[in-house]
Design goal:
Length: about 280
Amino acid sequence: MSSRRCVSTNARGLSDGLPPSSGDVTETASEPEAEDDGEMVHFSHPEHRLARFDFPYLFMCMGCKEYGAGKRFMCQACGFQLHEFCALAPPSLHDHPFHPKHPHLLFFAKPAGGFLRCKCDICGKAVKGFSFRCASCGFDMHPCCAAMAARMELPAAHEHPLVLAPADGGGETSLVCQVCRRAIRRSGSGSSGNHHHHHHLVYQCLPCGYCLHARCAKDMVNGLYAHGIVPPERRSALAAAARVTVNALFGVIGGLIEGIGEGIGEALFENIGRSRRSFR
């Protein structure tokens, strides 16, 4: 069963803090922030204080169960870590640009129950922990995705501001995401009534046509892109594809080498090793 942390009508944005309560439901509008020394007590880890750090390496946020790099709140006693925006998430969001249909999104500490695994409506990945959910229609998004805006400056990716294109922007398929290099699919008018159009959300530069998936823009918000880190799930997918290719290649060459002189076989394998290195 989901646990609602708080119903508040005065949340001031994602930079605000959550009430440090260990109960499942907290009916309060108080939003304590990190103290002057950068430390805080968080409801998800009440046994130790969390301190602010900025490290360039990868970590798994224990709040939303998504990856991050850079800024975080961390427990020095046991290594528990939270994204900065997860640690400081407000009890509710109002009039978020990603969900104009309904005005209120509430913070939930646990994913929605039920047979079907809930997915984030922005990046399409499973919601395994903290999220903001619409009580009216089931719209759900990670705190990291909620930290994005309808218009963003992402100098690490592009020199011009990027704006979120409408989800129903027609059936154009010629656009390619400049980060993952995959074709951008748009929902168009023929899409079903389901509200899960996560893979159609796209940021575009109107003057020059540069575009990227919201899912890829997310890696610029959570610190992965800035620190040159490929998300592990994307890395493992690439590695699996590479393994299949290399295994097939070695299978063919292995068959050819049988019965060929040992010296020629060694030379072939040496060349393969060199060409594999050149792909890196």
